[in-house]
């Protein structure tokens, strides 16, 4: 990078090195842009990624991340981002064949084919039929309910993107009452939405966008990095692209101020770990900080009306996230059939209650089913998480003691389901992420801010609080791609002399 005394010149500055920032940096650096990533923490990946503990890679919220929580599968935009920057080696097909659903309090267990979960089945009729069977539709009602659901889906995917955006405040349940006559069809659609972690869908517009985004997409893949495990595998894959194309990733470099002159971005002032001041000049600045944090380093008077407020409104949907991690010497045996658990069903979801639509209670999965390096060779890593609502029915928990009490009840079910879990556990630890945590607003009836900051030329916000089509697992890849594309379209001419593009 060019240096002029205390000033370092580049084509694009990434204020924040979370996954979205690294995706944008990888795309731009591969196009020949001189890129610098400024990351305030000492961790590659910023607030998203994994931390190694005794050979295991622990994910989920320990870095205050909001965009991606686990490496369960990498759907639409993660795959697109990987393809855009030439990442191929860490990609492998998703191996899971089904999701196992546990119904409490009767402890009934059913299996749901994975293509019905991620929406990638080549046969939509069979996909919906599988949902109906899993969710208890009687055999003699199967064809009628399946047809009713498919008719509803056809209506929804036929709605334009513009109308879907306008329908974000509308409630899916209300639309179903008006447009779907079969009560069983309405129940199955609402029950399917309970599969989405950290709370079901409430927004009609968000649900429409979700359906249209996944329609016709190929099967899911996982990013299984050869050197590191868990979410850190995604982080490292994109960071490697940045470095391989001449970009710099500076850790312990905290963005202090985004410099703006005459409504054009000019660069970033940052502090190193000694609080020494560094000035970085560039015609493009992309930040992956949450929208509510922008006033920390941008004059609020320069931001569009309602920009920060839109991000702040999302925090009402943010939740606590208690979980339990266990390192296993081997996989446990199911009590029901005596068979050893395998990775054909890496996800286990719990529904609870006696109402027609059962509420999601949480679940567990083996991260070693997706990322082989998440656990040492021959061993496995299990995590159990609780859903949005506590036993009291209110979001979150008053204290860690309350959260742990609910979590212990859920862990007791694990010991009922597996005959020899205690014999397999080598170590276990609780984890607790207090609000705001993770992407619990993904399908909620709230508008988000755009990626482009309309009042400041060259400034983009690629964070989990931005408006995008990305799912709850790949929203950061979606906004990272969009920010890089917009920057090239709108500001690429300012760096063309240096690179000839």
TrEMBL record:
It comes from Mycobacterium branderi. Residues 19-332 form the Amine oxidase domain. Keywords: Plasmid. PANTHER family: PHYTOENE DESATURASE. InterPro entries: Amino_oxidase (IPR002937), FAD/NAD-bd_sf (IPR036188). This is Amine oxidase domain-containing protein. Gene3D superfamilies: FAD/NAD(P)-binding domain. The keyword Translocase does not apply.
């Amino acid at each position: 990078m060019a240096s002029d005394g205390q000033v370092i010149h580049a084509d694009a500055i990434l204020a924040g090195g979370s996954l979205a920032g690294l995706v944008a940096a990888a795309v731009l650096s591969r196009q020949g842009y001189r890129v610098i990533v400024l990351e305030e923490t000492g961790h590659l990946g910023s607030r998203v990624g994994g931390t190694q503990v005794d050979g295991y890679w622990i994910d989920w919220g320990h870095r205050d991340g909001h965009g991606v929580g686990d490496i369960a599968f990498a759907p639409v935009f993660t795959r697109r981002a990987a393809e855009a920057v030439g990442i191929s080696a860490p990609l492998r097909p998703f191996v899971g064949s089904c999701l196992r659903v546990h119904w409490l309090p009767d402890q009934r267990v059913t299996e749901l084919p994975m293509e019905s979960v991620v929406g990638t089945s080549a046969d939509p009729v069979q996909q919906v039929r599988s949902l109906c069977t899993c969710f208890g539709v009687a055999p003699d009602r199967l064809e009628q309910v399946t047809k009713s659901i498919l008719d509803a889906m056809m209506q929804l995917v036929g709605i334009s993107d513009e109308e879907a955006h306008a329908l974000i405040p509308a409630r899916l349940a209300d639309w179903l009452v008006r447009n779907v006559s079969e009560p069983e069809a309405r129940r199955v659609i609402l029950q399917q939405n309970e599969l989405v972690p950290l709370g079901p869908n409430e927004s009609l517009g968000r649900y429409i966008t979700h359906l249209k985004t996944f329609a016709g997409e190929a099967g899911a893949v996982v990013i299984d990095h050869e050197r590191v495990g868990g979410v850190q595998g995604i982080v490292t894959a994109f960071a490697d692209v940045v470095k391989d194309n001449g970009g710099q990733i500076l850790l312990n470099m905290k963005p202090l101020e985004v410099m703006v002159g005459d409504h054009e971005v000019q660069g970033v002032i940052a502090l190193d770990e000694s609080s020494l001041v560094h000035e970085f000049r560039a015609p493009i600045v992309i930040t992956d900080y949450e929208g509510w944090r922008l006033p920390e380093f941008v004059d609020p008077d320069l931001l569009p009306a309602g920009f920060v407020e839109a991000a702040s409104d999302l925090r009402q949907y943010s939740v606590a996230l208690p979980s339990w991690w266990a390192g296993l010497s081997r996989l446990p045996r199911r009590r029901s059939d005596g068979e050893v658990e395998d990775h054909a069903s890496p996800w286990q979801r719990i529904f609870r209650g006696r109402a027609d639509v059962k509420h999601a209670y949480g679940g567990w999965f083996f991260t070693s089913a997706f990322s082989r390096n998440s656990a040492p060779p021959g061993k496995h890593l299990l995590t159990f998480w609780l859903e949005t609502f506590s036993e009291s029915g209110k979001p979150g928990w008053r204290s860690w003691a309350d959260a742990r009490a609910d979590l212990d009840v859920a862990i007791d079910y694990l010991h009922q389901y597996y005959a020899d879990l205690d014999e397999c556990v080598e170590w276990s630890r609780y984890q607790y992420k207090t609000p705001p945590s993770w992407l619990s607003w993904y399908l909620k009836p709230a508008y988000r801010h755009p990626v482009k900051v309309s009042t400041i030329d060259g400034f983009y916000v690629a964070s989990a609080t931005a408006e995008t089509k990305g799912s709850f697992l790949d929203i950061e890849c979606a906004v990272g791609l969009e920010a890089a594309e917009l920057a090239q379209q709108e500001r690429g001419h300012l760096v063309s002399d240096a690179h000839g593009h």
